[in-house]
Amino acid sequence: MTQKLNVIVIEDEKNICNFIQTTLENHDYKVTTAATGKEGLSCITSCYPDVVLLDLGLPDIDGLEVLRQVRDFSTVPVIVISARIQETEKVAALDAGADDYITKPFGTSELLARIRTALRHSQASAPGKTEAVYRSGDLMIDFDKRLVTIAGQEIHLTQIEYKLVSLLAQNAGKVLTYDYIINHIWGPYADSNNQILRVNMAHIRRKMGENPAEPKYINTEIGVGYRMREE
């Protein structure tokens, strides 16, 4: 018998909590719920969850503080679920260690897809788990050969452009903030102005023949960052 994956839902709105619990249990997840930040932290330390769904607007502790405390002792995937739609809120949550961010209201399909993505990233980051090739539609990235092709045709990228594409591909399905990308590619002392990132991304999209208005491979999370399409 396959052991069910354990999801902790930290959410004080009863109707939303019930919706999430019913949805996940119908898809064979084990669900533990908590209505406060303190209760949620206790559940995380005692239940060893596979994924945590965290609301930001909790009655006792702000969700961001809960997230920061979790990151002090655990790398469990955390998906923030919140009615806060400001870009600064999303960036703050992602920079504090959230793996993803879903804005209320959301549908069943989106919720399940984000959970699957978070679980894949968690499993991929385990020791000995490295994928040598990324594929999405016609796009293929061979990390060992540092080769990028579309429909079998090689795409010639600069060193920086390749680093950008490979970073996004290795985190496919996960939104990476502008600051995270800049820090990872150019280092912690790089200018935080996003212009250099936007210019390089424009060059990449032109070389890949991608229309930014209808992206096939790289989605822009406006004001937040970029997300590579999942394999």
From TrEMBL:
<keyword id="KW-0902">Two-component regulatory system</keyword>
<feature type="DNA-binding region" description="OmpR/PhoB-type">
    <location>
        <begin position="131"/>
        <end position="230"/>
    </location>
</feature>
<dbReference type="GO" id="GO:0032993">
    <property type="term" value="C:protein-DNA complex"/>
</dbReference>
<dbReference type="Pfam" id="PF00486">
    <property type="entry name" value="Trans_reg_C"/>
</dbReference>
<dbReference type="InterPro" id="IPR011006">
    <property type="entry name" value="CheY-like_superfamily"/>
</dbReference>
<dbReference type="Pfam" id="PF00072">
    <property type="entry name" value="Response_reg"/>
</dbReference>
<keyword id="KW-0804">Transcription</keyword>
<dbReference type="GO" id="GO:0005829">
    <property type="term" value="C:cytosol"/>
</dbReference>
<dbReference type="GO" id="GO:0000987">
    <property type="term" value="F:cis-regulatory region sequence-specific DNA binding"/>
</dbReference>
<keyword id="KW-0238">DNA-binding</keyword>
<comment type="function">
    <text>May play the central regulatory role in sporulation. It may be an element of the effector pathway responsible for the activation of sporulation genes in response to nutritional stress. Spo0A may act in concert with spo0H (a sigma factor) to control the expression of some genes that are critical to the sporulation process.</text>
</comment>
<dbReference type="InterPro" id="IPR001867">
    <property type="entry name" value="OmpR/PhoB-type_DNA-bd"/>
</dbReference>
<dbReference type="InterPro" id="IPR001789">
    <property type="entry name" value="Sig_transdc_resp-reg_receiver"/>
</dbReference>
<dbReference type="InterPro" id="IPR036388">
    <property type="entry name" value="WH-like_DNA-bd_sf"/>
</dbReference>
<dbReference type="GO" id="GO:0000156">
    <property type="term" value="F:phosphorelay response regulator activity"/>
</dbReference>
<feature type="domain" description="Response regulatory">
    <location>
        <begin position="6"/>
        <end position="119"/>
    </location>
</feature>
<feature type="modified residue" description="4-aspartylphosphate">
    <location>
        <position position="55"/>
    </location>
</feature>
<dbReference type="GO" id="GO:0042802">
    <property type="term" value="F:identical protein binding"/>
</dbReference>
<protein>
    <recommendedName>
        <fullName>Stage 0 sporulation protein A homolog</fullName>
    </recommendedName>
</protein>
<keyword id="KW-0805">Transcription regulation</keyword>
<dbReference type="InterPro" id="IPR039420">
    <property type="entry name" value="WalR-like"/>
</dbReference>
<keyword id="KW-0597">Phosphoprotein</keyword>
<feature type="domain" description="OmpR/PhoB-type">
    <location>
        <begin position="131"/>
        <end position="230"/>
    </location>
</feature>
<keyword id="KW-0963">Cytoplasm</keyword>
<dbReference type="GO" id="GO:0045893">
    <property type="term" value="P:positive regulation of DNA-templated transcription"/>
</dbReference>
